[in-house]
Each structure stands twice: as C-alpha cells, then as structure tokens.
Amino acid sequence: MEHKRKHGYKKLSVGDFFFIIIVLSIFMYFYIGFFSPDPNIGSKAKIILWTIRIGFPLFMLVLLALYLGIRRRRIAPSSIWLLLGSIIMIAFLAHPFISHFYGARVFSQNLDEYHPYLQITPKDISIPDGENTKNAFRIFCLGGSTTEFPDTEGRDWTTRIQELLQNTYPEKHFEVYNLGQMWYTTLHSIINYSVNLRHHKPDILIVMHGINDLLQNADFCSYSFASFAEDYRHFLGPFSRLVLHRSFLQSSVQVIRSMWYHKPRKVIDTDIFPGLVPFARNLKTLCDLAKTDRIPIILLTQPHLYKESMSEEEKASFIMLKYEAVGPDSRWSIETVRKGMNQYNNAVREVAKKEKVFLIDLEKSVPKNLDYFTDEFHYQDRTYDLIAGHITTRLLEEGIIK
Q1: Is residue 88 domain-resident?
Q2: Is the domain of 372 the same as that of 274?
Q3: 144 in the same domain as 54
Q4: Disulfide-capable partner of 212 in 71, 145, 185, 242 (CB 3.0 to 4.6 Å)?
C-alpha cells in the first residue's frame, strides 16, 4: 500500500485546468475559421476542408489525452518526445520526394498542349487528299470554347452544320472545320488564321468571339499579373499554371489559407471596358484579312445566359464569376458581366455594319435559360441543334451557299 501511494497517479492542478481552457480556446478560434472558407474553392479542396473539420477535433482530443496522461504520470514524457521526433523526421525525409513528384506532375502535365505564342496549341488542320475533296466547299469556324466544345455525345455545332449542308446539297462535298480553342480571343484567332489557316484558302470564315475578350478586362483576376494592356500581354490565362508554378508546400499553404477565415472579396460593378477598343480592332483585322483573301467572313454574336433577372439556380451555374473573373481581393458582379457581354455583342454588330460583312445575331436566337445553357456560356445538347440550324438557314437564305 505504501508503494502504491508513493508512485500513484498525480491529480490535476488548478494550473492544468487553466492551461487546458486556454489551449481549447485557441483551438476553437482556429477551428471556427474553417467554417468561413473561400466560396470559390474547388471540389478537391472541399474534401480537404471536410477532412480538417472532422480530423482537427479528433487530433485535439488525442493531444488532450496525451497531456492528461503525462500530467497524471500514466505516459512517460520521453515517449511523447520520441513520437514527436519520429514524426518530424519522417516529414523531413518525405517532403523532398513528395515535392519532386508533385512538381514533375504539375509542371509537365499536358505540356504539349501549351504554345509559346498562342498559350494553348491550336488544332492541327489536315486537309484530306483525294479527288472527292479537291472541289470541297470548306468552312473554317474560329472562336473559343463555345465553338470548340462538343455536346455529351461528342458532336459540335460545326459538325451539325456540315451534315445539314450535305443533306441539302448531296451533290456537293462540304467540310466544316472546328478551329475554336478554349481561352482563345480575337488576338489568338488573328495569329492562328495568319500563320496556320490562311494558306488553306477556305470558302467561308465564321468567327464567334466575345467571352474571352471580355475576360481580358478583369485585370484584377488570378490569371492577370498587370493592368490591362491593349495587346493582352497582361493576361497569363492558361500559362498561369506554368508561370505561377508553386512547390508542394506553397500550394498546401495556399489551399489552407483559402479555407480559413476568408475575407469576402470586393465586388466590382462597372460598365467601362477598355478592351472594347482592341476587340473591335481585332475583328476588323480579321475582316481585312478575309477581304484580302477574297473569302466571305461571317461574324456571330455570342449567346449567353446573363439577363436582368436571374434565378438562384442560374446563378449557381456560373463559371466565369466563380473561377475566372475572380482575384485574391476582387470579383466582378453579375451586372458587370451582363453589361460587358451586351457591349461586346454590340461591338460585333457595329464592326459587321461598318465593314459590310455578314452578321448572324446568334445571341438573339438562343433562349436565356438553363434548358439551353449548362453555365453562363456553354450549351445543353439541344442548343447545338438550334445554333447549327439557325446558322445553316441564314447561310442558305442569304445565298452565301448556293
């Protein structure tokens, strides 16, 4: 009995209780912060966030149990120091390997998709050989992702136009090329047409731009590194994945910071877009190039979902306002993008009028609701049929294709 009392468990002191209360208060401050994350974090980050929300309390319970075990002499302090030292040692040994494989994966991932001048490598156009294609009627379609992307079955609106024309004139051979590329602006299309496409001498050039050129005005966003410049040099776009390359540790810290006590961004509400000047100039340049080559050029206005009154479901579908026109401290308002798209489409209409080229006002043909849009700009499957049908009908009505 004497021996048991001498080496028995130690009772907690008042100081221990105060220490535990202070530590728990600090823990609560940090823990509550993870319930105010950046609303724009991605799905992977949300998994990490919920892991922290569930795992952090468990971690604190383990620490509390260890502290109580040490203070009550149930656990030897040397065991804790040994455990801590082992964890630190493993972390130091593992970090170089994790950083190497993480960096190699991020930096070299799809590196062949990047182009030193066009950011994203343009599509390689291959004109088929053979007697059947010598007299083919070729249409080149330029634009961004709303030209490039297909429907859920892999069919885009350019393919549909080819099918409709072929059915209308079975004696002719039509080839409609989808040369749109995500992120591409009018400036990209000028370079791409001049360098890669012009010598193929298409019979018609169809151009639809607006969204990506509008985004160039968001010089506060994470894809930009300077104030707006008319030659778009301020905008990294997809190159930001390579230029803003971060180590594994830096990326981890950035992700955690975005989850903890996120400060709401300043909402920018404006109807002034300096990019309208180069946008109109670039469209005119494309028209001049086509006229020089004696190729009919057709300008399309850009369909979009933005309107004066939008439902919560429609707002929840946004992509540009969640991930693109967003910077560390600022973001565009819904009204800003609506005004911007209206001004850019009006600029397309004005250029077509001044340059006396054919305009298809596609924006007015696509209803502004989620039956036709998956987000602000990209389409539901039914929309591809609508767009292809409208463009084909106009081409035939105006006698551009006979």
Answers
A1: no
A2: yes
A3: no
A4: 185
Question: What's the pLDDT tens digit per position in 66-121?
Answer: 888 887 777 787 777 887 888 888 877 776 766 666 565 555 567 778 888 898 99
Residue 253 shares a structural domain with residue 366: yes
Domain membership of residue 186 as a residue range = 112-397
Residue pair 238/224 in contact (Cβ under 8 Å)? The answer is no
Tokens of 205: 């050039």
Structure tokens at 34: 């993870």
189 lies in the same domain as 311: yes
pLDDT exceeds 80 at position 9: no
Cα Rg for the chain, rounded, in angstroms? Answer: 29
* Long-range contact pairs involving 26-29 (C-beta distance under 8 Å, separation at least 24): 27/56, 27/60
Tell me the CA distances in angstroms from 378 to 98, 105, 186, 216, 382, one per residue in order. 37, 29, 18, 19, 12
Residue 274 and residue 350 share a domain: yes
Q: Which residue has the tokens 């330029």?
A: 142
Q: Are residues 70 and 190 in the same domain?
A: no
The first and second tokens of residue 258, run together, are 């975005």
Do 134 and 39 reside in the same domain of the chain? Answer: no
Domain final residue, candidates 47, 75, 103: 75
Is residue 91 assigned to a domain?
Answer: no
Nearest Cα residue to 202 out of 267, 293, 328: 293
Q: Is it the case that residue 153 has pLDDT exceeding 80?
A: yes
Model pTM above 0.70: yes
Query: Does one domain contain both 192 and 327?
Result: yes
Cα 99 from chain centre: 25
d(CA 77, CA 330): 49
Between CA 117 and CA 226 the distance in angstroms is 18
Domain count, the chain: 2
Instruction: Please report where in the chains the tokens 């912060």 appear, as a residue.
Output: 33
Of 394, 233, 210, 225, nearest to 320 (Cα)? 210
The owner of tokens 């930001």 is 240
